[in-house]
Backbone:
């Protein structure tokens, strides 16, 4: 065993500390969105990324933020925040307030922030994947070296449109990384009950696309893989299909209150051993970058920060009735009245 | 600037060329539109002129085509998507209605979608049940879309350029039996026909025929036939279904006191029913007879010519409907 000082850091110390904070922030933020739902402050459907934080923190910290394009499905809070959306505006959107990212017209599933390169936030399983290829198409058309990250879930990997999209991305050499967030369960149906071939990265084979399965519970490993893959796509101007193995500790959505319908407590406990936050804490301790006391202090700080965000969002007004007609079109309002 | 007599097809192609020349971010996507020159030859010659970067032959996957174009439009490109026939847009309807039409609203106005989906809509000639749909009513039902159906070469030219310049998703429907129609076109790169303005195609005082797309031409023929009987019909060409210019329709009905709405779509629930309802709702006191409708027969389009012709409204059907008004 080498002495600790001899083990080189996987990333600079300050970055590791910051990443730890980002993971913690998302964890507490998502717990707060769940709380908002239970309080009746958020309605509709709400999907948290608890346990899946490296999907956003890992991948989105290696791209060129604000330049590269990102699109995902409805488990989108983390993606918006890591890309730079104001967490108050995101929370306000989730609560349907007028200062929300979509002025209260989108909600939890429909977060967008084009100035950060974030294009949603989509609710139809697999339905956004072609638009993801379209973002990459635009970059190629304009001869820019932007890379598009198009996330989807393991359930969406069976959608017909996804196959059409893979074909076009392969056919036209579009610079896009398709990231299948494989958390093993499509809503409440396990992978082995919804996919004929459970190695979802093999969806790339018929389209002559580079493909691989990676672990996305360990943030540092996630970032190493993400950097390598994003760089490859930028350099080679071709698509890439990634099956990112992850695990959601929470239910499918805030309304999913019986996880035992699709998995055992034992499975959850085993998965919790690889909680991305715990893995990160282990790393920080191992390299003497942070004490347990310091971690507890940061945790407390982040909790307080999230509390302030929640209160600020909750103090925000709802939209005015006349706003219902705004933003249907860029240049006109629809016929009014019932 | 010059006034030229040209076909609907050539007028449409001229508009495409002018827009592609004006703006390098305008491009075409569709099935067989490039190397094969387009099924209805609307895009003939454009692949040679602009190359494969701007005239893109796609796989036969309509949802994928509309989706990829929508994604490109979200960051400001201006795609023109051809549906080989509008009947195939049924495959893409989730991308059109549940995605493209919703983006501006769901983003609170942060993202717009300058997308045109165009193609032949309606019956051609014995294409039978799967290739003869008039779907404009489905789309005009959907907030977030604009839907237009020009009836003349000049309107297809001016409205197409307006469609490309529009920052919202536009469904642009062309009846296949209009492509060969000739008419005068005022060629001018700056000329556009704004959406939401109906046109009085023929003035008259006794009855208003309200129509769009090819049914405007059918209504004009019916008006001629009625003239021989001493009935002076006015023809209002709606042109744009969404937005809909009800004022021009109402003004005409207030003058003639009678209205027949003519549309090729299935009579039941087609867009003509919406127009008829609006006339009934807002012009009740001006009407001397109930609003009448002439629509397509409520059956899947049959293949054999005699039965197909029964399904599509013709000038005789319109004349008969006018006579029945009394």
Residues:
């Amino acid at each position: 065993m080498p002495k600790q000082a001899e083990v080189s850091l996987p990333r600079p110390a300050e970055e590791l500390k910051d990443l730890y904070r980002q993971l913690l922030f998302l964890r507490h933020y998502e717990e707060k969105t769940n709380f908002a739902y239970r309080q009746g402050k958020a309605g509709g459907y709400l999907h948290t990324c608890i346990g899946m934080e490296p999907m956003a923190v890992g991948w989105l910290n290696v791209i060129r933020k604000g330049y590269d394009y990102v699109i995902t499905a409805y488990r989108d809070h983390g993606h918006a925040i890591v890309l730079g959306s104001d967490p108050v505006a995101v929370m306000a959107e989730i609560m349907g307030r007028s200062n929300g990212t979509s002025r209260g017209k989108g909600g939890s599933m429909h977060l967008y922030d084009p100035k950060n390169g974030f294009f949603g936030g989509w609710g139809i399983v697999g339905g956004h994947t072609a638009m993801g290829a379209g973002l990459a198409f635009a970059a190629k058309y304009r001869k820019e070296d932007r890379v598009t990250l198009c996330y989807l879930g393991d359930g969406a990997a069976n959608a017909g449109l996804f196959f059409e999209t893979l074909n076009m991305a392969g056919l036209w050499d579009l610079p896009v990384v398709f990231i299948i967030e494989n958390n093993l369960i499509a809503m409440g149906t396990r992978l082995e009950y919804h996919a004929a071939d459970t190695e979802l990265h093999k969806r790339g084979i018929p389209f002559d696309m580079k493909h691989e399965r990676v672990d996305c519970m360990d943030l540092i490993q996630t970032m190493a893989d993400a950097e390598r893959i994003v760089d490859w796509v930028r350099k080679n101007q071709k698509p890439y299909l990634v099956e990112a193995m992850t695990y959601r500790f929470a239910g499918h959505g805030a309304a999913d209150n019986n996880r035992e319908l699709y998995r055992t407590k034992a499975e959850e406990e085993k998965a919790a051993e690889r909680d991305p936050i715990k893995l990160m804490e282990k790393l920080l301790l191992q390299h003497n970058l942070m004490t347990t006391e310091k971690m507890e202090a940061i945790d407390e700080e982040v909790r307080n920060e999230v509390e302030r965000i929640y209160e600020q969002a909750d103090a925000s007004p709802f939209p005015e009735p006349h706003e219902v007609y705004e933003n249907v079109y860029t240049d006109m309002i629809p016929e009014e009245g019932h | 600037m010059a006034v030229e007599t040209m076909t609907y097809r050539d007028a449409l192609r001229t508009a495409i060329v002018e827009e592609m020349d004006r703006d390098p971010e305008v491009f075409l996507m569709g099935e067989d539109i490039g190397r094969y020159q387009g099924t209805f030859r609307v895009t003939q010659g454009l692949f040679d002129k602009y190359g494969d970067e701007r005239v893109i032959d796609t796989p036969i996957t309509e949802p994928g085509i509309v989706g990829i174009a929508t994604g490109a439009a979200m960051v400001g490109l201006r795609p023109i998507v051809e549906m080989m026939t509008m009947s195939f847009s049924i495959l893409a309807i989730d991308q059109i209605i549940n995605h493209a039409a919703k983006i501006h609203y769901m983003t609170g106005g942060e993202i717009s979608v300058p997308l045109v989906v165009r193609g032949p809509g309606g019956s051609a000639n014995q294409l039978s049940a799967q290739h003869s749909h008039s779907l404009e009513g489905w789309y005009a039902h959907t907030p977030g879309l604009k839907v237009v159906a020009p009836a003349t070469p000049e309107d297809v030219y001016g409205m197409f350029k307006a469609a490309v310049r529009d920052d919202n998703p536009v469904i642009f429907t062309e009846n296949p039996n209009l492509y060969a129609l000739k008419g005068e076109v005022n060629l001018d790169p700056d000329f556009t026909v704004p959406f939401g303005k109906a046109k009085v195609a023929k003035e008259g005082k006794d009855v208003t025929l309200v129509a769009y797309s090819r049914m405007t031409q059918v209504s004009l023929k019916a008006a001629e036939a009625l003239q021989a009987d001493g009935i002076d019909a006015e023809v209002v060409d709606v042109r744009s279904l969404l937005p809909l210019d009800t004022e021009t329709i109402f003004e005409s009905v207030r003058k003639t006191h009678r209205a027949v709405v003519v549309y090729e779509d299935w009579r039941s629930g087609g867009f003509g029913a919406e127009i008829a309802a609006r006339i009934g709702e807002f012009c009740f006191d001006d009407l001397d007879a109930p609003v009448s409708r002439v629509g397509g027969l409520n059956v899947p389009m049959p293949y054999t010519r005699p039965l197909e012709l029964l399904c599509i409204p013709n000038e005789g059907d319109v004349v008969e409907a006018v006579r029945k008004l009394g």
Q: What stands out?
A: Chain A has a mean pLDDT of 96. Chain A touches chain B through 48 residues (CB under 8 Å). The beta strands of chain A are 69-71, 148-153, 176-182, 185-186, 189-190, 210-215, 240-245.
